[in-house]
Amino acid sequence: MLNVKRGLKSWKRIVRDEVHNIKPYIPGKPIKEVKEELGLAEVYKLASNENPLGVSPRVKEVLTRETVNINRYPDGASRSLKRSLSDKLGVKEDMIAIGNGSDGLLKVIAEAFLDNNSQAVISYPSFVEYKFVSQLMGTQLIRVWMKNYHQNLEALARGVTSKTKLIFLTNPHNPAGTIFRKDELEQFLSQIPDDVIVVLDEAYHEFVQDESYPDGIEYVKQGYPVIVLRTFSKAYGLAGLRLGYAISAPDIIETLMKVRDPFNVNHLAEKAGQAALEDKDFLEATIRNNEQGKEYLYTELDKIGVGYVPTQANFVLIRTGVDSIKMFKELLKHGVIVRPGKPLGYPHHLRVSIGLPEENEAFIRGLKLTLE
Fold it and tell me: Which residue among 31, 139, 194, 304 is buried most deeply as judged by most CB within 10 Å?
């Protein structure tokens, strides 16, 4: 007779060491769960930097129409979406890779270039996915501390060694919301060896209002070893469909295509992405709502004397001065879900997504009650 207990124990010895050392990603709490746990009738989620306006009406129409085709495999090459992005961005189709969100593309990049004899350079704190994909491949991480909530590009360049294969930058930065300027990026790129790839994550680029902000695609066109990542999850409101894309030199894109899963983007996501690109009015409304919400939060936070980091994204990093987990739990009681800063590297901060006016007002009310 099979010894089931013995079998359940013995499998653990074959797990890769890298996997044992990884801590699972903990997403923001869903609204339904908070309502059930605390018995609240109204809950506002400002934790995951989602689009508070929802999705474009065009996207809704396309999704309804395309449900009849979900019995078929999607176009594995995402040709239609690549064509639309090529026209919008002014790059050739062979310079574009489509992925299951930016997260999926980050994993593909790591699998293509990293191993246990290499190094990756990241800012700290920064988006946790860079650490995850590097750890998964057994890669040594070189962490460079942020400087006044900004990425220290000079120190990042000094962190490069003969073993460095990838450098992860994020512009705007998550979770600080700050940016680096064109001149800073150009100075940085001039110091990076040709055999080191710079991954430039621009997930929040649509929200940037600062004219000194560099468009990473221009540096791809100029021949720098750069991979630009962008997403439909934020400004376009397609977080639930998981859709992102990468722009780089054709030979780099070809390398990534060797590693990706077949049919890595589902049919509805691809069609929704095309529709989202066509709806300029929805994108403009999204950016307008974000700017208005940002100014409201700045004004109210100034009134109550709570510090914050001026942002170029759709969230604000707020300096509460108290333990972020405690503050997070207190705000939950008032029906507001935010992101505690401790898991993000800022233990006395909260990251708050910019929502609709009523959501922003609910956060300020909850914050005032929590600070009393």
Answer: 139
